[in-house]
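hey all, quick one before standup. I had two proteins in the batch that finished overnight and I want to keep them in one place so we stop losing track of which output belongs to which input. First protein below, input sequence then structure tokens straight from the run.
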Amino acid sequence: MDDIISSQDEKNQLLSLRERKKRLVQTTIEETALQLFQQKGYEQTSIQDIADAVMMSTRTFFRYFASKEEVLFGPMHAAMTDAISSLQRVAPTESPQKALRATFLYLAGLYQLRRDSFLIRYQVAAQTPSIASLYLYALLEKEPAICDALCSHLESATNRDEIRFPVAIFMTTFLVAAAEWLKHEAQEDLVVLLGGYLERLSSLSPM
């Protein structure tokens, strides 16, 4: 029995080591790509340029990222996915509005923790007409996932069509706050900034 436990521990340690190595390579690719985007421009930087800079083949690059766009927007999607998962920590008896408030404040906290990374990505996107409008609005793709998470977790979220409206309102409020935050080079605390917007929102209608 002890041998089985020891073997499993070794496997877990090996997997953990592999994950750490994978994340280290991903981080190196991201940081290098962002530097190239800033120096040469997003559209002028090829995947080959990135691969050459980190001394790997393009084939190896594609093991970590599907495209340049994923390098640029990946952290946004990852943060949103994490925020959606955080809904599971909300009491099932909570109202959709309070659950959404907690979720988007949590998302704002994730952005605040990686402010430098998000700011650089915003600046790169802002200089690239073909992707400028996608930087913030890429998050809108997650609206259906938020609706699904609410409907599957909250007792009061029984009508998906009705849930879409408050989700859209909270998403838009977050986008407005994030746009202002980034416009001012992320000098403010996004959690505080979003909280202020949500307070103004609650004064218009019961939350």
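OK second protein, same deal, sequence then tokens:
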Amino acid sequence: MNEEKKKTTPEEYFRWSVFGIAMLLLFMAAFQLYFSMQEVIRTWFEWQYVSLFKSVYNLVIIVLCIYIIRLYVFRKQA
């Protein structure tokens, strides 16, 4: 059972660093988009319907997140 130790090269560290930075920027952009959409709803719709459209928007976000998580978990198990 002689297993070769996998050496981590500086190139791999660089790739993981770039990946981490890109994911951080993506995460920040997603938060900004979420709150910007809240403002768009507040601007485009009459005040009576703002809470309804915010609720629908949040429900769509929750369903989308659950769908993505479900796909990730089932793909990991298979």
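Flagging for whoever picks this up: The mean pLDDT is 83. The longest helix spans residues 10-44.
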